[in-house]
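How a chain folds remains the central question behind the approach discussed here. No coordinates are needed to read the tokens, only the vocabulary itself. For completeness, the protein is quoted in full, as a sequence line and a line of structure tokens:
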Amino acid sequence: MVSADRERLPVFVYGTLRPGQRNHTAFLRGRTVAEEPARMRGAVLFEGPGYPYAVPDATGEIFGDLVFLAADQHDGVLAALDRLEGCLPGGPGRHYVRVERPVLPEGGGTARAWVYLAVDEVARRLRAVGTRIPGGRWPV
């Protein structure tokens, strides 16, 4: 049985990993089997240095894409994304944590997906002094 952390879920992307953005080309192009617009409730976006941060917020909603990784590349791509997003356990300067959340694909229904959210320390700082991205869409 696959552990919760190793489950082969799609990934909800909302920043530089979205189709057409720089990290999509570097990390996802040719490694997905499907991509579709989607939205996720329970978070808002804040500006970062060239990329956004998703911060938990019960009243918020963000827009992005649900990316289905190719089965034979899933684990390797997810590990590469974890490194990119600075969310390796015990790693210095952690920015994000990968968590499972429900996502609403544009075509209807609900899907379980991995998403990268700002770690608590970063989220607290952004709530206090960050610039919120209106409408939950990046790039603006």
User: Anything to note?
Assistant: The domain at 4-127 is CATH 3.10.490.10 (Hypothetical upf0131 protein ytfp).
